[in-house]
Design a protein that fits this description.
By secondary structure, the protein is α+β, with helices and mostly antiparallel strands. Helix content is about 45%, strand content about 10%. The protein has a single domain, classed as Orthogonal Bundle (Cytochrome p450), CATH 1.10.630.10. It has 18 helices and 14 strands.
């Protein structure tokens, strides 16, 4: 989405929603949000209800406070990740004509325990701290290579030249997909994530497209395994049964979408902050051992994911009546700016006592790739500070953003004295 995006139509307020709980906010196209996302998040934290209902994008709940989100994320009966119930999916599949290709599902993201647990278990080994730590040298070498290409120029558009290619190349290598197709892959992911009100039929087509472009690699790895995630998943079992091609396609779509989009946005937000906070740049250059702490504090300050949920039952939550089937957004960026949880929450403070953030969510759906994200973020910050002189935002080209379920940085122009 861009600044030219238009607000979605406002829908009527349901009778059970009190007027005091209504706040007009479009999480895809709110002008102030698209212009400067986290500035707008801070405004919402200060002025919107801690839980509110917005009439935009079909009408849905926004959970804002740290306590509300933490409790909701752990209560899968009240807030389900099955945006489309499994029973409905099975009924739809049963009506498809014979010979219809398998319709992939992004498992385990869109299912709840106990099924979530058995599908997530094979991935825990792939993203374990031990497995990710083994990649550190390669990640650092790639970061240096990308930064050395721009160091003598005195300027760069950081997203396209560093922040995007680094995590994308790392993840494509981990998956075992060809690097030369990264631009094609990124275009597919951007298209998938940019729709504020996705039509199920269009989603189905997009998921089938993703599995189609991965199928040859998956089949080849089944016969000739290598040292990559696709090969490893072929060797695992799900609930005691051998992995099938349907399972691989389900894993493929979730890994493809999540792995090729999220971390680059964290990098963009963090480097943008460093470009605006020259004293912090100087402090980290003089004390590189503080980069790990800075990584966590910047993650808290610029949390950027908004997981969707479906209300699982008629209930009262935070003093409000919610009805089964209504949508609710876990607005993690607001949770990590909650002044009841963090004093002076808008400040990046390396001496902050409470450093425990919720940027990777909580409960059974806590981000599986959190360790990989931390490693990539920390290495990028370390190498940017080691490879480039003091850098600033380019005043002639201010940053641009996109919003939705991911708050992302589209462009980030930096300048420095080469």
């Amino acid at each position: 989405m861009t600044g030219a995006a238009t607000l979605s139509p406002a829908v009527p307020k349901p009778a059970h929603v009190p007027d005091a709980a209504v706040y007009d906010f479009d999480m895809f196209a709110d002008p102030a949000y698209v212009a400067d996302p986290h500035k707008r998040v801070m405004d919402l934290v200060q002025n919107a209800p801690r839980v509110f209902w917005t009439p935009r994008n079909g009408g849905h709940w926004m959970l804002m406070s740290h306590a509300a989100i933490f409790n909701a994320a752990r209560d899968i009966e009240a807030f389900s990740s099955e945006i489309v119930p499994q029973s409905q999916i099975k009924a739809m599949v049963a009506r498809l004509p014979p010979g219809t290709p398998h319709i992939p599902q992004p498992l385990p993201i869109n299912i709840d325990p106990p099924d979530h647990t058995k599908y997530r278990a094979p991935l825990n080994r792939v993203f374990s701290p031990k497995a990710i730590n083994a990649l550190k040298n390669d990640i650092r070498a790639l970061a240096n290579q990308l930064l050395d290409r721009v160091a003598d120029k005195g300027r760069c558009e950081f997203m396209t030249e560093v922040a995007e290619p680094l995590p994308v190349q790392v993840f494509l290598k981990m998956l075992g997909l060809p690097l030369e197709r990264q631009e094609e892959y990124r275009a597919i992911v951007k298209d998938h994530l940019s729709d504020p009100d996705p039509d199920p039929k269009n989603v189905m087509k997009k998921l089938l497209h993703i599995t189609a472009i991965m199928r040859d690699t998956m089949l080849e790895r089944r016969e000739n395994p290598r040292d990559d995630i696709i090969s490893l998943l072929w060797k695992t079992e799900i609930d005691g049964k051998p992995t099938t091609m349907d399972d691989m396609e389900n894993y493929g779509v979730v890994l493809f979408i999540a792995g090729l989009d999220t971390v680059m946005n964290g990098i963009g937000h963090g480097v943008r902050h460093l470009a605006m906070d020259l004293p912090l740049q100087d402090q980290l250059r003089q004390n590189p051992q503080l980069v790990a702490e800075a990584t966590e504090e910047i993650l808290r300050r610029y949390t950027f994911t908004v997981p969707p949920r479906v209300v699982g039952k008629d209930m009262e939550f935070e003093g409000l009546q919610m009805k089964k089937g209504e949508r609710a957004m876990l607005f993690l960026p607001a949770a990590d700016l909650d002044p009841k949880e963090y004093a002076n929450s808008e400040s990046v403070d390396l001496k902050r006592e409470n450093k425990v953030h919720i940027a990777f969510n909580a409960g059974p759906h806590r981000c599986l790739g959190s360790h990989l994200a931390r490693v990539e973020l920390q290495i990028v910050y370390e190498q940017v500070l080691a490879r480039l002189p003091q850098f600033r935002l380019d005043p002639e080209h201010p940053p641009t953003f996109h919003c939705g379920h991911i708050i992302g940085v589209d462009s980030l122009h930096l300048t420095w004295n080469s």
